[in-house]
Amino acid sequence: MSKSNLIMNSENLIYTLLDSKLIQSDKEISDFLLEIQDKHDFSTYLKILGGIGAYISAICFIGFFGAFGFFEDKFTRIFLGILFISASIFANSLIKKNYSIKSSFLVQLCFAFMILGKIMFVTGFGEFLTGFTINFDRGWNYSLALFFVTFGSYFFYDRDRFLSLFAFLVSILINIDYAISNNYSEIFINGYFLFQFICICILFIIPRVSRKYFSIAYSFVFSLSATVLFITIKTVFINDGDFGWITWVFTNLILSLGMILLIYQVLGKRNTIANKAFLGTSLGIVLLGVISSSGIIFVIFLMILGYWRHEKILLVLSVLLMPIFLISYFYNLDLLLIQKSIVLVLSGILLLVIRFFLTKISLEGVYK
After folding, report:
1. Which among 120, 128, 115, 124 has a CA at the least distance from the CA of 164?
2. For the segment 27-47, what is each residue's pLDDT rounded down to a tens digit?
3. How far apart are CA 225 and CA 144, in angstroms?
4. pTM for this structure?
C-alpha cells in the first residue's frame, strides 16, 4: 500500500466507502465533502482578537461622532444606529468568504459599524422610552432596547450574536439587583439563576440544538458565570445581608442535581442507577454540595460538560474561574487557618474520589 493511500482525506474516504460498497456513487456527496475539505477558518483566539479590535474601532468612532455633537439628540442616535446596523448587514452580505486580507478588513469594519450602531440605538432608544415610563427605573428601558436590537439583527448578522445576547442577559441581572426592592431581589436572582441553568442544560444536552443555536448557548454560559460571580461577591466580599442561606441552599441544590443528571446523561445506559460507581459519584456530589460553594460546583459542572461535548471554551472558562471561587470559598470559611486547611484537603480528597468513580464509569463503558 502506497503512502498516499494511508493519508485519509475526503477524497480517499469517498473511494474507500465506494470500494466497500457502503455508499453508492453520488456526485452530491463527493462535492460536499471536497468543499468541506477546502474550507479553512480562523482560530478562536484570532476571532477574539478581531472582536477586540472591532470594539476598539467602534469606541474611536463614538469619540469621533461625539466630538461633532451627534450624541446630544436621542433621535439622531436612533437614526444613525439604524443606519449603521443596516449598512453593516448589507456590506457583510457582499463580502466574499475567501479569508483574504481585504475580506478580513471588511469583516472587521462591518463588525465595528455593527457595534457602533447598536450602542447608538440602545442609548437613544433607551432615553426615548424614559419619557413614557413614569416612576420606572430607566435601566429596564435600555434592556428593552437591547432586546429589540439584538433579536432584530439576529437572523441577518451572525458575528455579534454572542456579544449582543450576553449584554442583554447581563443587563437583566443588573436591573434585578438595582431596580427591584431588596425584599424580593434574592427571589428574582434565584429565579433568574434557575432559568439560565435550565437553558444551558437544554442547549448543551441536545447536540443539534447547541450547534444550531451556538451563540445562544454560550451567551447563557457566560451570563450564568456572571450571575454566580455576582452571588459570590455579594455573599463573600460585600456581605450586605441581601443573600443568605436561602441562596446558598438553592444554588447548591440546583447545581448538584444538574451535575448528577449530567453524569447520568454522559453514561447513557439504562442500568446506570443500579451502577455502584454512579451511586458513589452521586453521593460524592451530594457531599460536595453540602460542604462546598455554588461557584466550585458550577466550575466542576462546566468541566464535565466541556469534556463531554469536547468544547474547549467551556474547559478554559472553568479553569479561569476555579481560582476565583476557591479563593472566595477559603476566604469565607469562618474557621481558624488550620481548620480551613483541613476542610480544603478534605474537599480535594472528595474531588479525587469523584474523579476515580468517573474514570471507573468511563472504563466500564468502554469495555462493556
Report:
1. 115
2. 556 555 555 554 445 555 566
3. 22
4. 0.76
Q: What is the pLDDT of residues 6-34, one digit of tens each?
A: 445 555 666 676 677 666 655 556 555 55
Q: Answer yes or no: are the C-beta atoms of 120 and 149 closer than 8 Å.
A: no
Q: How far apart are CA 117 and CA 166, in angstroms?
A: 17
The alpha carbon dihedral of 287, 266, 308, 276 has a sign of positive
Residue pair 251/193 in contact (Cβ under 8 Å)? The answer is: yes
Strands (E), the chain: none
Q: If you search the block for the grid coordinates 502506497, which residue do you land on?
A: 2
C-beta of residue 117 within 8 angstroms of C-beta of residue 79: no
Helix runs in 153-181, H state only: 161-179
Residue 287 · residue 350 · CB < 8 Å: yes
- Contact in structure between 173 and 227 (CB atoms under 8 Å): yes
- For residues 134 and 132, give the distance between their C-alpha atoms in angstroms, rounded to a whole number: 6
Name the DSSP letter for residue 156.
T
